[in-house]
Amino acid sequence: MKKVFSLLFFVFAISFSINAQSDATPISDTQKIKVFPNPASNVVNILGLKNSTKAEIIISDAYGNRVLEHHWGIKNNALNIPVSSLISGIYIATIRSQEQQVQTKFYKK
After folding, report:
1. By Cβ atoms counted within 10 A, which residue in 13, 20, 36, 79 is the most buried?
2. How far apart are CA 70 and CA 59, in angstroms?
3. What is the DSSP code string of 47-60?
4. DSSP label at 21?
């Protein structure tokens, strides 16, 4: 059973890493969001956001558990989120502000 689960997780991870850069999902807008580096080791950069004085940034693991939460302003249409404290795996970044709501995936190596 563990081998089957490991194989399924591996296939999911490969599929995710192939599609991760084009997999940003604007919840209320249709702008282009770029996430890099992907996979990330220390910092993940998210470009194409709308500037905001206060945004809620939530990082969730693949199971939907919140692992990081910050309240930052978005400047120069970008965010730099430190992820060095996270273990390797797949994560979802949710950015919420008055200007927009965006979700995107990234992989932490």
Report:
1. 79
2. 9
3. ESPPPEEEEEEEEE
4. G
Global confidence as pTM: 0.73
Alpha-carbon span 45 to 98, nearest angstrom: 21
Domains within the chain, CATH numbers bracketed: 2-108 (2.60.40.3080)
**What does the block give as tokens for 24?**
């940003």
**Beta strand ranges found along 1-109 (DSSP E):** 25-26, 34-36, 43-47, 52-61, 66-74, 78-82, 89-96, 101-108
Task: Tell whether the model's pLDDT for residue 52 goes beyond 60.
Answer: yes
Q: What is the mean pLDDT of residues 49-64?
A: 97
How confident is the model at residue 10, as a pLDDT? Answer: 44
The two three-digit tokens of residue 103, written as one number: 């979700």
Return the structure tokens found at 81.
């989120």
In eight-state DSSP terms, residue 22 is: G
Average pLDDT on 68-81 reads: 96
